[in-house]
Amino acid sequence: MSKEQILEAIKVMTVLELNDLVKAIEEEFGVTAAAPVAVVAGGAAEVAEQTEFDVILNNAGASKINVIKVVREITGLGLKEAKDLVDGAPKAIKEKVAKEEAEAVKAKLEEAGAAVEVK
């Protein structure tokens, strides 16, 4: 089986099937898929610069309809799902995105009247 065939097979798997595959590989070869932890002298973990950010909607503000429209545009959710997300604020709109994307999403939501923070 070639590498391309393996990748094609993986593309059609569900998340549960992928999880089972990873566990089977770990058991078969005695390895782990967990990322190694960097340790400095003294035992403290290194503090790396944050590369992934979450965009949190704190409040929809006065123009809730405009915020729902922007949330739909950003997330691709349907009207009901976007409304439920906005109604359930504070909620994460986008998670683990690059700083530039997080700032762009924040700017769009603030322009629509929402109170937003990037963590």
UniProtKB/TrEMBL annotation:
The lineage of its organism: Bacteria, Bacillati, Bacillota, Bacilli, Bacillales. Forms part of the ribosomal stalk which helps the ribosome interact with GTP-bound translation factors. Is thus essential for accurate translation. It comes from Paenibacillus catalpae. NCBIfam families: L12. Gene3D superfamilies: 3.30.1390.10, Single helix bin. Belongs to the bacterial ribosomal protein bL12 family. GO terms for biological process: translation. Residues 3-46 form the Large ribosomal subunit protein bL12 oligomerization domain. HAMAP family: Ribosomal_bL12. Homodimer. Part of the 50S ribosomal subunit; present in 4 copies per ribosome. Forms part of the ribosomal stalk which helps the ribosome interact with GTP-bound translation factors. Forms a pentameric L10(L12)2(L12)2 complex, where L10 forms an elongated spine to which 2 L12 dimers bind in a sequential fashion. Residues 53-119 form the Large ribosomal subunit protein bL12 C-terminal domain. GO terms for molecular function: mRNA binding; structural constituent of ribosome. Keywords: Ribonucleoprotein, Ribosomal protein. InterPro entries: Ribosomal_bL12, Ribosomal_bL12_C, Ribosomal_bL12_C/ClpS-like, Ribosomal_bL12_oligo, Ribosomal_bL12_oligo_N_sf. GO terms for cellular component: cytosolic large ribosomal subunit. This is Large ribosomal subunit protein bL12.
